[in-house]
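User: Run a structure prediction on this.
Assistant: Running it now.
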Amino acid sequence: MTRARPVRHALTRLAAAFLVLLAAPALAVPALPEGAPATPAPAAEAAIADHQDAGADARIAGRIRAIFGEIEALSQVEVAVSEGVVTLAGTVPAAGDGERAERIASRVAGVATVENAIVRDVSIDRNLGSLESLSAGFAGLVAMLPLIGVALVLAIAIAFVGHLIAGFGALWRRLLPNVFLADLVASAIRFAFILIGLVVALDLLGAGALMGAVLGGAGVVGIALGFAMRDTIENYVASLMLSLRQPFRANDHVLIDDKEGRVVRLTSRATVLMTLEGNHLRIPNSTVFKAVILNYTRNPQRRFEFDLGIDADDDPDAGRRVGRETLAQLPFVLADPPPDAAVMEVGDSNIVLRFFGWIDQRESDWVKARSRAIAAVKRALEEGGFALPEPIYRLRFDQRTMPLPFENVAGPQGDAGRERPARQPPEPAPPPDSGPEGDDAADVRPDAEIERMVEAERAQGETRDLLDPSRPVE
């Protein structure tokens, strides 16, 4: 019997192992498909015991009351426990204290759930501590009034020193190239000293955090204003560059893109022109800085040009010669550079000639001189036998190879079919006398009415002009 017992135990262990091997496939975890992410199993919630020890509710209630007793804000909370369910009642001074009490109670071992019936106490007696802290803060502020006064006086003194330094206008105008830049530097000095005074005052009061907030806020506000006022800032920078570059002088006749007139003044925001009709024209300096500027006043010599057409059968070289000689005899046309003419194109019914002449704008008006030159050359061409035809359109109703009916003319004896002789170019006639030289010169004299209007406008001096005659023009 003693030998049979170990044998039976061995057989029992073998049978148990065999059963485990048979049950292993059913208990195995199924394999995940290839590439599928492995997801961790969710954490199981704490199970509620199916029975409770005697006196557990009293122990839980005592523990929670002990914890709340150590916290002043929760000292008035009432705690009741029944079968692990904690009921909280009473009042707290702040709204967030009720949730805080619920979190603390739920962490005590054996608590099944928490019923929160806590309300906030809004009575004056309960919130008297807050009023006392506010009163203490006000008392501290009153106690700091002398120090605040010293800091304020120091800030004002620093700002006043900056104002005095910036007020040396004559010094800045002497050191800097123009009035606009001098005013800009003076404003920057005032702003810098005000900022330094504010920083020193806050540092004296021990408000380092407030000082950092002020500087950071100033930076953010500066960036926001930079984006919001980029057009204004661009115009301001353009005004500064124009005051330094000086692209024109007062009373210069300029063409800025497609806007023409005489310069009245350059301000910190716009360039003021007097149009040739006598109207004021304000162009933003940002537009002027980027525009193409044509200055007619910089070079007193100016060329005019005009086109005239002669008949297709006329000699264009003879027409050019007549036009050049006519222009050369006009008293307001300069001999150097000499007048000239060129064949521009052969049109449908004429040959277009372009004539060129130079004048001195200080003695002759460009529009008047061009007008007189056109009339003189046209009259000289007509009297020289040149035809200035209008457009002619020829209609053909037959084949192009057959002669037209009017290409053959009959002679005195009616000999039809005789070809018309080719037209010979006319001999150029001398240009007509255009009148006394003094009358011509007086007729094209420059009209100074717009210049006088500009000078009268500048004499009023209502706005500071940034144009400086002592600086070179770009």
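The mean pLDDT is 77.
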